[in-house]
Amino acid sequence: MIETRDDHPHDVGHEPTWSESTYFNFHDPKSGLAGFSRIGQRPNEGTADATLFLFLPGGGAVAVLEREPRKDVSLAPVGGINHERRVVLERWRLRCSAKGLGVAHAVDMAMQGSSAGSVVAVHTDLGFVACMPPFGTSGRRQRTAEASASAAAVAAGHFEQACRVRGTVRIGDQRIDVDGLGLRDRSWGPRDWSAPWGWRWFSMPFSEDFAIGVHTVLFPGHEVQAGWVWRDGRTIKMKGFTLNTTFDGKLHRSLTIEATDVEGSVYKIAGEVGPIIPLQIGSTRVHEGLTRFTLDDGREATGLAEYLDNT
What we know:
AttH-like fold
């Protein structure tokens, strides 16, 4: 069960890869601007990393990458990026004032930058307001063997919330007003990017009163799935889901999901993947795809389809 204390820094574990992270994503339907940002504190390694990636209308992208030496897990800014908690489990503010790398095509983006890019000033001030209570696990209760294996490598605790997002983004001299939907999550515990074979993670905010999130983590010999649906003023756990993906080389280009919640409702979703930002974390490949999800009743959402692979 997620409690108010879980929106604060947690006691640091002994594992070398122990991490505390906060994450936000958003999409503005009017302008087409979308983005995501993550701050990861790795106190036992003595570092803190912050990233902000923007999908620009027209297919371009901007990346801001920050890193500082740090031994604590406070939510102080990392470089020019700040994730500020305003009201516990309800409101947050994402601000950035930094230099970023802009590229004409999102797929040209890599974690270490691109010779095809240009330096641009990036300023964001975005307010996130939760549409739903947090869904996830604190890691304080006993788990199944499979879930424990996943937690030992990926995160002991994790929760997610669909959000309303409003504010402004300025890239160089261009100002874009944002009024859309998104998702935030928080994770803590060991984070060994190379431990699983891979994972697939999807955020699908259809409206303020209807959103879906599912993910699967792949290990040798087993798979760990989790997910939720926010509907009718309630958060309902997913029982499981199937996934079929069409690839173009290593890039995911389209997908279908059929998810079933614990009450028996079925959600058939088709996803068309637009621009993809490819990231590299050591030997781990992460592809972030801005995706239009369409439910079988015609409702649409724009969110992220994240594919991580170590194979």
